[in-house]
């Protein structure tokens, strides 16, 4: 196959491919091996699904209903582009007995619209508004895998991890906030085998890009003197928005800008050395070279020296989370938290900040006992092995899928030869052995 993101190569027999995939799926769920010709994107998703405790005969859980669903949808950014989705995709879905679906960044379906017969069939697998279709909840599927990978995905028939979804084919693409680049959710078309075509993948991606362009037009203009912002949560390389520019920073520059944003009074070279390098053999010359490159990138009007400091306030997303937590706005804090702070960084000061922020947020979530907020954390990549959060979630939402996942984690915790428990930031996670 020339394009690994396309489910069927030209001329392939869909029925024969379904038979092959079903045998491959049975082999994987029985012995854990993925035989050819399963696409790599699907094989990797199956492995993630199995690690998350998804069972092939499971189904999605409905987490939002009635008034809660309506209120959540009304406030969600993608509500502003639903008219565009319906205009571009609604007739297409209705005419071909397909479904238009839109999910949030956690894989919860917000809207499911389309042909009445298709909707009735989809109801049988809980492909309904308010249900969580994240990859960690129901396994490989286009909307859930699209937000996991942050790229357009096509999932054909028995490539789905959950068996009751295997009669369907779906195509989804993530939609991003045009100002921050964060994933807001995904737009999806679900239907029959005819969707396993390169054109459907390009079509859904084009719709997602159109939605992002529409969101950019609807966003209020930012004044030129607006406070610079730094996005560093859930990404190894931060992005700085300043003076109409969006600057992608290297990992080291990300660490420096983040630390300086938290110290408006500035830091000396020695203080930065201690904050950035665990290796005491690193010399001041190395740091000065990094700062010289950063000054050329940002300009001397933003970065000054003696001490090193930013000449204006930079509002980092990690600081926003701390500020909202401090004021008791837990839901608002959780919305900003897009993942661990610069997760690949080993700078001592960043590690401490990353662990403290995660520890304080998850402690607040556990204490607050809101099932939706706990589920968002538990189903996120950074929370899939957080046994204490899964215990808290099971206490307030004891669904079959939650109980099954918790039981799997408890069993693994009780088997130290398979996996050892690790304490990170005050939380109990399960540490997998090297593969």
Automatic annotation (TrEMBL):
InterPro entries assigned: GAF (IPR003018), GAF-like_dom_sf (IPR029016), OmpR/PhoB-type_DNA-bd (IPR001867)
One MF annotation (Gene Ontology) recorded for this entry: DNA binding
Boundaries of every OmpR/PhoB-type domain copy: 244-310
Pfam families: GAF
Annotated transmembrane regions: none
Any one Gene Ontology BP term: regulation of DNA-templated transcription
Keyword vocabulary terms for this entry: DNA-binding
Name of this chain's protein: GAF domain-containing protein
